[in-house]
Structures are given as C-alpha cells and as structure tokens.
Amino acid sequence: MSGSWNDFNDAKQNTNIIPKGTLAKVRLTIRPGGFDDPAQGWTGGYATRGTTGSVYLSGEFTVLEGPYARRKIFTLIGLYSPKGPDWANMGRSLIRGMLNSARGISDKDISAQAQAARRISSFADLDGLEFVAKVDIGTDTNGDEKNEVRAAVTPDHKEYAAIMGAAGTVEPPQFQPQSQPAHTSMPQPGVRPSWAQ
Fold first, then answer.
1. Residue ranges under compositional bias (Polar residues) (predicted)?
2. Of 24, 145, 151, 167, which one's alpha carbon is 20 to 30 angstroms from that of 135?
C-alpha cells in the first residue's frame, strides 16, 4: 500500500517565501516596544530596545493585493546600534523611501513640498502607512530564509502606478507645517498611549 499519504519523498517543501525582487503594495504596522527617548524624537512607545542596546521599530508589513495578499513580512527598522551609525542610516533610508512611495514623491524631488512630505511628527505617522515595497530575502536567528522589506519603490519606477492603484498619477496629500500637528488624535509628547502603559 503506497500512495501520497505513505511516501513523502516527492512532497514539495513549503518554504512560504515570496520571491526576491517581488514588488507589492504593503501596509506597515509598528509593533510597539515601549521604549522612548524624547531627546531622539522617539516617543509614543513605538521603538523597541533590544538586549544588545540596539533600538529599532518592529515592522509588520502586510501585503494588500495580488498573489501574496494577506501575507506578513516582519522587518526591523534600525534606529540606533552601539556598533555604529550604519544600521540607523539604513533605517532612515528605508523610512525616506517609504514616505516617498506612500506620498507619491520622486526621490530626486527636492522641492519644499517634497521636503515637507518627508517629515513626520512622530512614529505614529508611519503606523498604517501604505506603500510599494520591494521584497527581499534575509535570514532569521536560526539561519533560515525569511522575507524582509529593505527598500520602497517610488513613482520613478515604471510599475509603481499600477501597483499603487493609480492611473499613472499620484497626487501627494497636502502637508501641514511642522508647527501644526498632522493628526489631532496623536499622543502628546511624554504621554503614553493606553496600549504602551
């Protein structure tokens, strides 16, 4: 008696990995870590401090459309590393790309409106951000492959408009000067939201 439920030699491995280079519209959810450093602008309990002293945002990127819809990709967005500035610079670069992608701004645009669009009041502005991500493959703590988001795709890319769902034009939202709060429901500096207490 031999069949597919007796002999598993020909069973395909389910690696559950999205192919490297796949472009996908994603929504970022920041999993709160409860670490604040107001001197750095890290407020609201969004940052996480690791056992090594590194500080990061714990990002959960949910694919919104296409063949990988509802799949989740977990990536740390570096804010600080005791080893030096490289990890924080990579994190800043990723966030810049995410803002460019979400707000329909070319990376080459240095206009006042584009510069204002690349500013945030707090990490709360990133929570829920939708943009086009380029899926990459890294390794987890066990050395197994896992998907990561290390780059965002901006309107300069030929596939951006189709993936974002726009018909070739993306109007960036109107941004308020930094002196005015962008969201009225944002937590006040020094006051933790209920989920971070």
1. 176-187
2. 167
**Measured torsion, CA atoms of residues 144, 148, 150, 156, in degrees rounded to the nearest 10:** 130
Residue ranges covered by each domain of the chain: 22-165
Question: How many Cα atoms within 13 Å fall on the side-chain side of residue 164?
Answer: 28
3-state per-residue secondary structure call for 130-166: EEEEEEEEEECCCCCEEEEEEEEECCCCCCHHHHHCC
Distances in whole angstroms, Cα of residue 120 to Cα of each of 29, 124, 127: 16, 8, 11
- Per-residue pLDDT of 70-102, as tens digits, reads 999 999 999 999 999 999 999 999 999 999 999
Its pTM stands at: 0.77
25-74 pLDDT tens trace: 999 999 999 999 999 999 999 999 999 999 999 999 999 999 999 999 99
Distance of alpha carbon 108 from alpha carbon 123, whole angstroms: 24
Q: Contacts by 137-145 with C-beta closer than 8 Å and gap 24+?
A: 137/17, 137/20, 145/15, 145/17
- φ, ψ of residue 46 to 5 degrees: the values are -75, -35
- Encoding tokens for residue 148? 């990561």
